Structures are given as structure tokens and as C-alpha cells.
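hi! just following up on the protien thing from before. the input was this:
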Amino acid sequence: MNWWVYIVECKDRSLYTGITNDLTHRVIEHNRAQGARYTRYRRPVRLVYWEEANSKASAAQREALLKTWSRRKKLLLIAQEQNHNPSRTTLGVKRP
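and the predicted 3d structure came back as:
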């Protein structure tokens, strides 16, 4: 089973970091107000970053680290990924 660490940008431009074993479904849940309480009132969300993890434990560990990062540092990570993989897509939508 694959695990993913992801960052979504909320309607208010805040960033939410989470983990899942079904990335597409999880983003859909966030946009249906079935995801985390934080994103429920900040819809719609847009997937801006994701990375694969070897296990649930490693995904949770990476998520915990990313949650300690400043907004600026997360935005740099997102920008760096977009520069390295500009055509990377998910959910049928090209990455921003």
C-alpha cells in the first residue's frame, strides 16, 4: 500500500499538510467537507504538493516535520517541486 504526504492550499490561501493512502479520494473528501476540520471551512482546497512515503509511519513522520516548517519554507518546497516536475498532474488538473 502506498502512503502519501500532501499539502493543499485552502481558499483562504492557508496550507494544510496531511497523509493518506488514497490521494485523489482524500482531496475529494476535503472538498466535500468530509476531510479535516481545518479544511472543512476553508473550501475549496487545491492540491499543491505531494510525495510518496514507504509506510504509514514514515508518512506520519514526514508530515510532523513539514508541520513544523514555516509557510515560507513550505512554499519554497512547493516551488522547487514545480520547477523540477512542471508537467506533474493529479486529479486531471495540471499543477499550478
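The beta strands are 3-9, 15-20, 46-53, 89-90, 93-94.
The first strand starts at residue 3 and ends at 9.
cheers
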